Amino acid sequence: MKVSEVMTRDVKTVRPDQSAQEAASFMLSEDAGSMPVSEGDRLIGMITDRDIAVRGVAKGYGPDTLVRELMTGDVLCARDDESIEDVAAKMSRAQVRRMPVVDSNERLCGIVSLGDLARETDDQSAEQALEGVSAPGGQHNQG
């Protein structure tokens, strides 16, 4: 089964010129700990609640800080034609619960979550990803 068959297509994103407060509000309304950052249909980064609450606060940034100052620009993505097993393995290695999905033109076309994998599959993919996400991580490198 391909990830395009289980991903969420209606992806909510934030722009790099929006404030951290706006990004946090979107995360709250979507009940998500991370949001893709896009310019048009191009994925340029991800911002997480941890980016805002830990890194931002540690550096003394306020709620008006722009998303571009806090986001992670090097984003691990899934391709829409990848198998769910391969994507689950990627999610496990990267220890992420949500992963953006891009098409062959590098355009953001969806997002896949552990919940999507669990709902739509009857194999070990979601379990594999969850085990990796839940495992103790190494040193965090978030700039």
UniProtKB/TrEMBL annotation:
Domain CBS intervals: 7-65, 71-127
One Pfam family recorded for the sequence: CBS
SMART domains, per the entry: CBS
Lineage start: Bacteria, Pseudomonadati, Pseudomonadota, Alphaproteobacteria, Sphingomonadales
Keyword field: CBS domain
Source organism (scientific name): Sphingomonas anseongensis
UniProt-recorded name of the protein: CBS domain-containing protein
Region annotation (Disordered) ranges: 120-143
